[in-house]
Amino acid sequence: MTHADLVTIAGRWLSTTKHCSVVLTEVVSAATEIPDAIGFKSSHSILVECKVSLEDLRRDTNKCCERAGYRMGGERYYLVHPVLWTKLESRGYTDLPEKWGLLTLTPRGQVRVVRNAESILPTTDSRRSEVQLLVSVLRRYQAQGITYAPFEKRSDRQRRDDYRQFEADVRAARQLMGLEARP
Predict the structure, then answer these.
(1) In whole numbers, what is the pLDDT of the chain averaged over residues?
(2) How many domains is the chain built from?
(3) CATH number for the domain harbouring residue 40
(4) Where does residue 67 fall: left (phi above 0), alpha (psi -120 to 50 degrees), or beta otherwise?
C-alpha cells in the first residue's frame, strides 16, 4: 500500500463517511501546507494526513505550520498503514500530537477509527490557509474557461443551465477522484 493509495482512501472516507461536500487531495497552492486530503462541510474542515512510516509521521509533527499553530483542519487525523498502526499501538500512541485522531485500515481495506480527533478552534492563520487553498482551486477552475455572468443578468433558463453544468462538473470531478461510479 502506497502513500497515493492512502490519499485516495482518505478522500473517499471524507466524502462518504464524514459527508464532506468538497474534498481536495494533495493540492499545491500558496497556503502554508499541502494537505494530503482535506474536506469541507458547511464551515467545518477535516484534515487527513497519510503516513506509511514512523519517520514520516515524526517529520510531520515537526512541520513549521504545526509548531506555529496554523495547521489546517478543525478536526485532524492521521491515516496510517496497518503496519505503522501496530508500531504506534505498541508505543502507546506517544508519537501522535494532542487532539489528532488516528485512522487505519482493516484487512478488507475499510477505514477504521482508532482514536477520534478532538475539535480544534480555527485560528485566523489556519482559516487564511484554508481560504488560500480554496481560492487556488477556484482560480484553476476559472482558468479552464468556466465563468459565469453576474447572477442578476442571467435569465432563469441560463441559471438552470449553469446549475446543470455545475452538477455535471461536480459529478465528473467525483468520478475522477473515484468517489462516484462512472456511468
Answers:
(1) 80
(2) 1
(3) 3.40.1350
(4) alpha
